[in-house]
Design goal:
It is a single chain. The protein has helices at 44-51, 74-82, 99-109, 114-127, 143-155, 173-190, 201-207, 225-230; strands at 2-13, 16-28, 33-37, 59-64, 67-68, 84-88, 161-165, 193-198, 210-215, 218-224. By secondary structure, the chain is of the alpha/beta class. The strands form 2 sheets. The protein has a 6-stranded mixed beta sheet with strand order 6-7-8-3-9-10, sandwiched between helices. Bound molecules: adenosine-5'-diphosphate (ADP) (2 copies). One adenosine-5'-diphosphate binds next to β1, β2 and α1. One of its GO terms (biological process) is amino acid transport.
Amino acid sequence: MIRLEHVTKKFKTKGNEVIAVNDVSLDINKGEIFGIIGFSGAGKSTLVRCINLLEVPTSGAVYFEDTDLMKADKKELRAYRQKIGMIFQQFNLLAQRTVLDNVCYPLEVAGMKKKEARERAGELLELVGIADKAEAYPSQLSGGQKQRVAIARALSTNPEVLLCDEATSALDPITTRSILELLKNINKNMGVTIIVITHEMKVVEQICDRVAIMSKGSVEEEGTVQSVFLSP
Ligand code: ADP
Ligand code: ADP
C-alpha cells in the first residue's frame, strides 16, 4: 500500500550534515499494523514525516499504491493526505473547543454541513467509547480520554491509514493497554491500516503484525514481531 524505496533525508545545520533517515526501504501492506521502533534520535519522526510528505526526502521514492508521490501534482498530494489520519503523544486537541467540536472541526473544514458533522462526530465518539464527554473541554479529560478524542478526530474523514506517533508515550500502562486495544479493534473492524511509531517494546508486542527496528537512521531489522523479537 505504501512503499518506501531507498528513502534518505539529510538536514544541513550550520555546515553540519545530519543523515536523519539513511536509505530506508519498506513496504507497508493494506490492513496491517506496522511498527517502527527505535531509541530517541533514531529517525522515526523524520521517516513518518517522509511518509505523510511533511518532509520531502533528499533522495529515494515514496509510493502510495501506484502513485509516485515525489512526482504527484498538488491535487494528487491533497487526495493522498486525506487518506492519512494522525495521532500524537501530546494529543493536539483544540483547548477552546468541546470534545464534539474537536471532532467536527476536520469535517467542517472538508465542507460538511454543521448538523451532519455533529451527527458523524457523535457516532465516532460512541465508537471510541467517550460519547458521555461530548460537551466537555479537553482540560477536563484524562490523558486516555484525550487520546480517544484524538482518535475519533483522526478517523472523522475516513482515512485509510492511521499514523500513530508515540501515541501512548504519555499514558500509564493500564491506559496504554486500553488505547492499544481500541486501535486493534479499529484495525480489525474498519480495515484501517495502522503505522505505529514507538520507543516501547510492549507496544509492538501488543498490537503489531510486523515491525522495523530503526537505529541511527537505518532499518536494522524488519519482519514479523515473532521473527524479529521472539525467536531464539
Ligand atoms: P526520532 O523520532 O527517532 O527520535 P528524529 O527523526 O526526530 O528521531 O531525529 C533523527 C535525527 O535527525 C536526530 O539526530 C535529529 O536531531 C535530526 N533532525 C530531525 N529533524 C531535524 C531538523 N529539522 N533539522 C536538523 N536535524 C534534524
Ligand atoms: P516533531 O516530531 O518534529 O515535533 P510532529 O511530527 O509532532 O513534529 O509534527 C509537527 C506538527 O505538524 C504538529 O503540530 C502536527 O499537528 C502537524 N502535523 C504532523 N503531521 C500532520 C498531518 N499528517 N496532518 C496535519 N498536521 C500534521
